[in-house]
């Protein structure tokens, strides 16, 4: 008998990535000789040894994913891969790892479209077992009954997951926040999660990214006023850099451009691809107009808005080329404005600072969300207020913080305790969380390394 397979009286949670770190989310749920995988993500420009994450001079790899060896060796017991949303830290490793897993993939239409394009770029586009799930659907996958639940995040169709077994249910939040004005999709619906309290949820496996921040996460709608104020005051060109997957932010920016007599252009393939996916899935308003980037360099500066990739200082991205005055489609001049409609992801401080220094040395005005009086970025993750409310809505027996470094997860556990959750389990990748019958953690149950993926 394989001791790494749970029996019918056991219910397990086993994170292989994303617990004790931000990025590379890969989670396994085990019950009755079967496993269910939730998300299969990657991270970028990272070392293979987690201890080297912040060490100067460590060798970095372009794309890094969790080591899937444990589940690859048990792929016959893997019922399926459930994808919660289309961010790279949740789907970025699927095209590389799925061929060795071979299981069905479950995703909503937007996430499925993003994933299909990734497979197409890899030269594979036939016979993919992608099952497109309607939002708020419930489906049996092996011994697991999976319910997709609408939640609010920073891209279309984010889903939380309720996993029900014969032994009880687990609530996997994935990435989320409480947003009453999300720009895309429906507002956060508290009733969905309040109703779960009657289900006597065994464990809530919860996003910890912003657990150190007090209060509530800002609404995505709040960015429209702040960005609009800065752009309305700008005399020359405006360049805004943001995460390509944040379709709501892209819609807000193009709307501001159209309303302020500026032509908006996209600098970056990932931006162009995401807008194309949004159009195909019906999320891009027909009246929002974009201008081809090849035309933008010929227009008067005060009529130009450029939305560029590279908010994290990526050296080959559009913003880095503009900062170095090396972009083939447009030059920046003194008096132009650059807005970072993003946060600094830990580890990217130095490359971002280098770009900011280059821009300021040319007398280009720079706005960064961390130092700006206006609201120019809204996180997609829950602050302490959001977390406290969700724990009180769902009333789980156990809180399991994930999606964060150790300090974030400890803070999440403290919020859960204050919200009345009597038991908090803190672990890391490779630890086995036994949720039925006797609640416990087996430390270092599985080797949980990292692997480099060829881009």
TrEMBL record:
Residue ranges crossing the lipid bilayer per the database entry: none
SMART domains referenced in this protein's UniProt entry, alphabetically: Lactamase_B
EC number: 3.1.-.-
GO molecular function: hydrolase activity
Location of the Metallo-beta-lactamase domain: 23-216
InterPro entries on file: Metallo-B-lactamas, RibonucZ/Hydroxyglut_hydro, RMMBL, RNase_J_2, RNase_J_b_CASP
Gene3D superfamilies the record matches: Metallo-hydrolase/oxidoreductase (3.40.50.10710), Ribonuclease Z/Hydroxyacylglutathione hydrolase-like (3.60.15.10)
Keywords recorded for this protein, A-Z: Exonuclease, Hydrolase, Metal-binding, Nuclease, RNA-binding, Zinc
Superkingdom: Bacteria
Keyword Cell cycle in annotation: no
Entry-linked PANTHER family: RIBONUCLEASE J (PTHR43694:SF1)
The name this protein goes by in its record: Ribonuclease J
Organism: Glaciecola siphonariae
């Amino acid at each position: 008998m394989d001791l790494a397979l749970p029996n019918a009286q056991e219910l397990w949670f086993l994170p292989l990535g994303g617990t004790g770190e931000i990025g590379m989310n890969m989670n396994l749920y085990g019950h009755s000789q079967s496993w269910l995988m939730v998300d299969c993500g990657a991270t970028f420009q990272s070392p293979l040894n987690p201890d080297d994450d912040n060490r100067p001079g460590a060798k970095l790899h372009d794309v890094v994913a969790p080591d899937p060896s444990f589940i690859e060796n048990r792929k016959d017991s893997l019922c399926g891969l459930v994808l919660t949303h289309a961010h790279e830290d949740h789907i970025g490793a699927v095209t590389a790892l799925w061929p060795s897993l071979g299981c069905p993939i479950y995703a909503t239409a937007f996430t499925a479209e993003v994933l299909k394009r990734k497979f197409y770029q890899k030269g594979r586009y036939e016979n993919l077992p992608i099952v497109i799930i309607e939002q708020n659907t419930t489906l049996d996958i092996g011994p697991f009954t999976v319910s997709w639940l609408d939640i609010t995040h920073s891209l279309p169709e984010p889903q939380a997951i309720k996993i029900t077994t014969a032994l009880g249910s687990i609530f996997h939040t994935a990435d989320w926040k409480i947003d009453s004005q999300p720009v895309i999709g429906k507002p956060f619906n508290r009733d969905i999660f309040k109703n779960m309290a009657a289900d006597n949820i065994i464990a809530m496996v919860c996003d910890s990214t912003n657990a150190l921040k007090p209060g509530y996460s800002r609404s995505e709608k709040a960015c429209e006023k702040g960005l609009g104020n800065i752009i309305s005051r700008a005399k020359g060109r405006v360049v805004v850099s943001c995460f390509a997957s944040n379709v709501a932010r892209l819609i807000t920016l193009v709307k501001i451009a159209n309303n302020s007599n500026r032509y908006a252009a996209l600098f970056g393939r990932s931006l162009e691809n995401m807008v194309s996916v949004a159009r195909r899935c019906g999320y891009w308003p027909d009246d929002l107009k974009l201008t081809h980037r090849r035309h933008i360099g010929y227009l008067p500066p005060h009529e130009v808005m450029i939305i560029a990739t590279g908010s994290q200082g990526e050296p080959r991205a559009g913003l880095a080329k503009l900062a170095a005055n090396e972009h083939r489609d447009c030059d920046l001049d003194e008096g132009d404005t650059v807005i970072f409609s993003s946060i600094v992801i830990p580890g990217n401080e130095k490359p971002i600072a280098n770009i900011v220094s280059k821009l300021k040395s040319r007398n280009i005005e720079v706005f960064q969300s961390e130092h700006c009086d206006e609201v120019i970025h809204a996180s997609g993750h829950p602050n302490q207020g959001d977390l406290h409310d969700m724990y009180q809505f769902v009333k789980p027996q156990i809180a399991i913080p994930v999606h964060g470094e150790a300090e974030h997860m400890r803070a999440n556990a403290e919020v859960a305790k204050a919200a009345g959750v009597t038991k908090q389990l803190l672990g890391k990748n490779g630890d086995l969380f036994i949720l039925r019958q006797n609640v416990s953690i087996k430390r270092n149950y599985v080797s949980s390394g990292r692997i480099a993926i060829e881009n």
